[in-house]
Amino acid sequence: MLPGELLITRTKKGRVYPAFAEIDEQHLELADELIEVYKDFEGKKKSEIDEIVAEFEHGLNFKLVRGLRTLLERRCIFKSKFAVEPVVARRAVFEAASSKKITNRKEREKVIETVAKKLNISVDDLELSLWADQESEVVLDDFALLKPEELLKLYNRSLAQTLLFKSTGMNVSFKGNYKEIFRAIKYLGLMYIPEEGNKIRVEGASSLLKLSERYGTSLAKLLPVIVNSDGWEIDAEIVIRRDTPRIYHFMMDSKSKNLLMSKEKESKTTFDSGIEERFYNAFLASPASKSWELIREPDAVFTGKTVFIPDFKFKHKEMHIETYFEIVGFWTEEYLKRKLSKLRAMPFNMLVAIDRNLACFNSANFELGLHQPVMLYSRKVPVGDVLRYLASIESEEIKREVERLKGTRIEIEGDLIPIKGIAMRYNVGKEAVRACLNHLEYVVFKEVVVRKELLNEVKKKLASKNIKLYLEARRAIEDMGLSNPDEVLAHLGFTVKWSGLDISAASIELD
User: Fold this and answer.
1) How far apart are CA 84 and CA 435, in angstroms?
2) Which of 309, 409, 468, 479 has its CA 20 to 30 A from that of 215?
C-alpha cells in the first residue's frame, strides 16, 4: 500500500483505472537502477541515499519513482550508529556549552574536546553520536533484495490496494485458495454475503450507514490473498471526492495477474489438528489411496447465507464420483451446534466423524439431527470405517454404470485392447467395463483385453521352445506385447514353482 498522495488513476465512463507500471524494458531499467542504489549504498547514511534517489524524480513520473522508492525503503533496515546514546551526547554538550558563550568554530571545538574526554570517547565518535538518531543520519544496515520485475509487480499491487482504501464494498469471485480468503475475511473483521456460484459480496458496517474510506483499509489488505487464487474477479465501488463524492467501479481480474505481485503458495499440506494429520497420513498409506485422491480443504461449498469448507474431499481417480469428509473434534457446544447447522444445509451427503468424548455430545438434551452418514471416534479416526464407506460408494457407482451399459454392445478390435481406453470411450469406470465385456473370442484381464488366438500362440511358443524357467517365460510373453505375464501364465494353466527366494531358480509347470 502507498500513501494516498502517490495514487495515480484515470476515470472513464463510471470506471476508475489505476496507472499500473508496465513490465517493459523502460520500467524494468528504472526499477533495476533504483534497486542498485539501495544495494550499493549499504552502510551509507539515509541522507546520502535520498540525494541520489531524488535525481531520478527529475524529468520522470514523480509519483511513480516516489512510489517505488517508498516500497524499497520498507525493505531497508536503518540503524543509528553511535558511541554513546545521542540524547546523552547532546545533553553533555549543551550543559558544557551553557556556561560559556560560543561564538565561533574554535570555541565549539574546545567544548567538543572537553565533553569527549569526559565521556571517554574520541572527538569523531562524539560528532557521530550527536545527531545519530535523526532520520537523515541513520545508516542503511540491511536491504532485502528483490528483482526489478518483482518491484514493479509489488508497486502495481500496492497501487490497487491504495485505490481500495476508498472502497465501500467489493464483489469477489474466485477459484481455489478458499481457506486463505475466508480466514483473511474473518481476521480482518469483514462482513460478507455469499452469492450465486463462487461469488461473495464483501461489506462493512460503516459502508452500510454512510460513505466512508475507513473500511477500505481492510478491503485493501484482502487483495494479496485474492490475487493468490487461480482465477478471480473483483468489482469494487470506489469513492472519489472532488466537488461532490462520486462512486466509480474498479474492476480487475486474474488476466492482470502478470502485473501484480502474489505471495508464493505453500506446497506443504497444513492441518488444524493432529487428528486430521494422522488420518491423512494413514489414508495415504492404505491401498485405497491407489483409487481415491484425498484433497485437504477443497473448494468451498456455498449454502444459503454461509460458506462451508470441508476438511477433506475424496475424488475417485477413475470413476466420476467424489464425496466430502468432515472431522468434528472441537469441544464447545456452541461450536458444534454451528457446525451441525452448516452440515444440515449441505445439498449432498457428507461423511461426518464426531469425537464421542465431546462433553456436549454426551449431554441429555443434545441431538445431532443429521441426515449425513455419521461415525463416532475416540482419539483417532477409524480409517477402516472410512475405507468401507468409500467402498460402498464405489460399489453403488459401479452398479449404476453397469446398468447404464446394459443393452450396449462394447465394440473392440485388435489383439490387445487397454480397458482404460474402453472406459474412457463409454465414460464409465474400468470395473463396469470388466463386468459388461462378454466377447467369446476375448479374455478380460485386470487392465487389458486379449484375443484368445494370441493367448494360444503364447502357449504354443512356451511349449515349442520347452521353456521351463519362470524369468524366461516372462520374457517370452512380454516379447509378444503382453505386459501382464503373471496373469497370462495363470490363465494358461501354469503355476510358478519356487526354490527358495531366488527368482532366477523359479520354474513354471503346467497343471
Assistant:
1) 87
2) 309
